[in-house]
Amino acid sequence: MITFTDVENNEYQAQCEIEKTDAVNGEKSLSGTIYFGQDVKANIAKGWTLSFLDENYVVVTYTKNDKENTVAFSAVQAFFYKMSKTGLYETWNGSHPFSSYLDALFAGTGYTYDNTATVAAFEKQDWGMSDRLSLFNDIIDQTNVEFSVEGTVVHVVPAMGSDLSTIVRKKFNLDTAEIQTDNTTFATYGRGYGAYSKPNDTSSKRLEVEYKSPLYDYYYPKFGAIEAVPIADERYTIADNLLAAVKEKVDKSWSISLTLNLVDLQSVGYKYAMANPGDYITVIDENLNFSDKVRIIKVTSDYDIRGTRTKTEVECGSLSFAEQQKTSQSTLSNVAAGKIPVPNEWLTSQVQLATNNLLAARTELRFTDQGIIAIDKSDANKVVIFNSAGLGVSTDGGQTFKSAVTADGVVADRLFGNLISGITYETEDPASHYRIRLKGGAMEFFKANQLIGGINQMVTGTDINNLEGNTLRLAQTDGSGTSVGVITIPTTSTQSKPLVQINAKIDSDLIFNGGGSRFITAENKLWLSSPEKVNIAATDTSTGDVNTHLAVTSSETDVWGNFNVYNGSKNAVQVTRDGIRATPAYELAENYVGDIGESKTGDGKTVRVDIDPLVFDLINTDKPYQVFLTAYDDAHFWVSERGKDYFVVSSDSPDSSFGWELKGKRRGFEDQRLVETKDTYKDLEKMEGLIPNGNQNVQSNS
To answer: Which of 34, 52, 519, 678 is exposed most, by the fewest CB atoms within 10 A?
Structure first.
């Protein structure tokens, strides 16, 4: 019985014949015919799902046949449906890590991924703005990796399946075979064109490689060079990488495909596993004069209404020509003829013996000369062996043990656990040789074999260190994987001259605590220094403009805007015979600019004093200005006239000397008087030490 579910999650039962397809690209699909289950046949509609062999599928098409009272349907695994109906509304350009592409595709879909393939960062142009399944297939094709889906987890791997010990042979477990050779794309020669020497100049010299296959000389006398379509891709900047791509294209241009009808031996009591998509098996058919190692590309299985598998059809693709040359045809022929036993690396006699014993005993383990051997009854490629050398787990019939515990250590493809404890852990990127080592409570960073930094313990805490000549960067990364440095220790930093670069805005109070005071370091000093100039700026909240308010160089300090001094004075500091003394600035209630000078009245007892043009530019003489006089002779002086850019001084005696002082209102600030600062007493109380006993500047005039 098959369970169908409608859009309201109501469940219905039906009996169906089903054809299930599994392929190396992760594809899992169903097509079937519903014979019994009236509720399903009458009501099946958009949004229905079904569960088959513990996997969920979405019905995508259905056809009702009134004459036969059946419903034919097709369904795809839920992952493919979900991803094809979900869009990625972004556009990416440039180079990004493989994980960044995967993170973006799986975000919010309900699916997660497990990636065990090593893929270098690669470049995409205008990637995005499409459904997630198309984008996922695009990066899977570009990176030459494969994937499978288990529940809500997508496993991304270098290649699916295993190189199995399984031998499929005519009259043993092979019913019929059909072999097809495709020579339409066969090539013996290829070229590749990569990046231009000048990226923006297509007339400049271009990276170029060529490749000749092992068959080049054999076919050349008759056909000349049989050329593959050239690869032209500016993203290739390294000759070896481009050559590898051309070589792969040429070597895989000749392909063989087989369609095999396998006798399902499990149905007649032979407990030996069927191979899975991605597995490599050896096929021997003397009638076709064929014996070779091939890869299973797709498996199609038929199930009757009782859920019993009745037929299995396997579509295989051969290895590339280069890989085929590595296969020993003589060994295969000798095995097929029965001249030599099956080699141990294919299927050991001890493993076969253990298999027979376990199947005969059902619930009893038998001991062999290799130790205790356990084989999965539903998949004989899964083997566990236990002996004095250790414990091993194999997924390829005992050829290799990728998970093992021996006296030399533990080997495993994957480790899972809430806590993994140990002395040393090490991981390395094979492309860049960047290596991280966890050892004895510390973390060390290496480039190749050179130590470049680490995280270590201190007596009082934790130390993050960077060795001279290397960069240590704290970065901010966006959703596309592009990162920018926020805090960087550059390569020029040394222990004697430590340097740090901060390329960010400080989004909080900057407080240095030392001795319990604000803005004071432990050494009672706070230093901001730069080789040329230190700027202090603030952002205008209304316009967003960043304006410099204070600039300090080695010789001067410039201030833009108002300069306020709270509870203190503006002083000029000079050296005297009695030490360094501060001379406070003269303060007025209004904003004045002044000038001082001397003059002398003439025979007519008057003199005109012209205001310095530069001083005139600073003051507004349209407003009343003041002139103060000091007598230097026995005479009386007064200002007899105040002009726009001059004033006239008179005396009661001729030829009399005097001093004068001019004060005029600063142009642009004529109306300022005791300017309101907007600060309150509470604001001042927050400034430590300014008014410890209240506002001492306020006094009574009563």
So the answer is: 678
C-beta neighbour count of 502 within 10 angstroms: 11
DSSP state, residue 169: E
Residue-wise pLDDT for 648-700, tens only, equals 999 999 999 999 999 999 999 999 898 887 777 776 666 555 555 544 555 55
Region at 144 (left for phi over 0; alpha for psi -120 to 50; beta for the rest): left
Is pTM beyond 0.70 here?
Answer: no
How many Å apart are CA 122 and CA 120, to the nearest integer?
Answer: 6
Alpha-carbon distances, residue 207 vs 92, 235, 250, 583 (angstroms): 26, 11, 19, 73
Q: Which amino acid is at 519?
A: F
Q: Which two tokens stand for residue 194?
A: 């990569």
> Which two tokens mark 665?
């209102």
Task: Kindly list the distances between the CA atom of residue 58 and the CA atoms of 7, 62, 690, in Å, as whole numbers in the listed order.
Answer: 11, 11, 74
User: 275-325, pLDDT tens digit by residue?
Assistant: 678 777 777 766 666 666 777 778 888 898 888 888 888 777 654 443 443
The residue segments making up the domain with residue 654 are 591-702
| CB of 293 closer than 8 Å to CB of 210 | no
Phi (first) and psi of residue 307, to 5 degrees: 85, 15
522 found inside a domain: no
Distance CA 386, CA 71 (A): 51
- Strand-pairing partners, residue 258, are 179, 316
Instruction: Kindly tell me the burial class for residue 212, based on how many C-beta atoms sit within 10 Å of its own C-beta (0-12, 13-18, 19 or more).
Output: middle
Q: What is the DSSP letter of 134?
A: H
595 and 699 in a single domain? The answer is yes
Q: Do residues 302 and 172 share a domain?
A: yes
CA–CA gap between residue 209 and residue 409 (Å, rounded): 44
Q: Which residues contact 387 (CB under 8 A, 6 or more apart)?
A: 370, 371, 372
Angle at 667 between CA 663 and CA 670, to 5 degrees: 75
Give the span between the Cα atoms of 420 and 414, in whole angstroms. 12
Q: Where are the beta strands (DSSP E) in 201-265?
A: 206-212, 231-232, 255-262
Largest CA distance in the chain: 145
Buried b (16+ CB within 10 A) or exposed e, 99-115: ebbbebbbeeeebebee
CB distance 296 to 277 below 8 Å:
yes
Q: Say if residues 592 and 666 touch (Cβ distance below 8 Å).
A: yes
Return the pLDDT at 360: 45
Of 633, 586, 579, nearest in space to 607 by CA? 633
Residue that is written with structure tokens 């294919």 in the block: 346
Q: How far apart are the C-alpha atoms of 100 and 111, rounded to whole Å?
A: 15
Distance of alpha carbon 135 from alpha carbon 303, whole angstroms: 33
Give how many domains the chain has, as a whole number: 7
The helix/strand/coil state of 531 is coil
**Do 686 and 596 share a structural domain?**
yes
Q: Domain check: are 297 and 331 in the same one?
A: yes
Residues 48 and 145 in one domain: no
Q: To which residue do tokens 């407990």 refer?
A: 271
